[in-house]
Design goal:
With about 160 residues, the protein is an alpha/beta fold. It has a single domain, classed as Flavodoxin domain (Rossmann fold, 3-Layer(aba) Sandwich). The chain is about 35% helix and about 25% strand. It is built from 5 helices and 10 strands; from the N terminus they run βαβαββαβαβββββα. Helix 1 packs across helix 5. The chain is globular. This is Flavodoxin. Keywords: Electron transport, Flavoprotein, FMN, Nitrogen fixation, Transport. Its cofactor is FMN.
């Protein structure tokens, strides 16, 4: 059994595709947030949480019901990585805002958050997912910078692999 769970919410399939790539690279088990996989929050030491962003920085719909489960879960001693997809050109002022919403739920839970990413080479105006000059997790823009995604994913996996249990 893997020690890493990837929980994602996807509307158009882009986030699901990234989740599948990450699962293959990390030998992780995959869960769709729409199934409310509460058992994964207990069973796994490493949690990778991913979402797309909609509207004005809104969380993807599948997370709406499940985010409260994360808020109520005991994440102490868990290692958490975040990834988010967004559109840095058309929604450049709320880029990967959905990832920021998940971060705001887990940041005070005594978990160890890993995988911050430099904002260099990204095209966006502003983002709630930037803390201390870095993204709080892996940020991807499949619409405008999709040609950079594979390299960004591989670099992020290499980075967080050193910190996962």
């Amino acid at each position: 059994m893997s020690n890493t769970a990837i929980i994602y919410g996807s509307t158009t399939g882009n986030t699901e595709n990234v989740a599948n790539q990450l699962a293959g690279l990390l030998n992780a088990d995959l869960f769709d947030a729409s199934t409310k996989p509460t058992e994964a929050l207990i069973k796994y030491d490493n949690l990778i949480l991913g979402t797309s962003t909609w509207g004005a920085g809104d969380l993807q719909d599948d997370w709406e019901d499940f985010i409260s489960e994360i808020d109520n879960a005991n994440l102490s001693e868990k290692v958490v990585g975040l990834f988010g997809l967004g559109d840095g050109c058309n929604n450049g002022d709320t880029f990967v805002g959905g990832m920021a919403q998940i971060y705001n739920v887990v940041k005070d839970s005594d978990c160890k958050i890993v995988g911050s990413v430099d904002i260099e080479s990204y095209e966006f105006e502003e983002s709630d997912a930037v803390v201390d000059g870095k993204f709080i997790g892996l940020a991807l823009d499949e619409e405008n910078q999709g040609d950079l995604s594979e390299e960004r994913i591989n670099k992020w996996v290499e980075q967080i692999s050193k910190e996962l249990k």
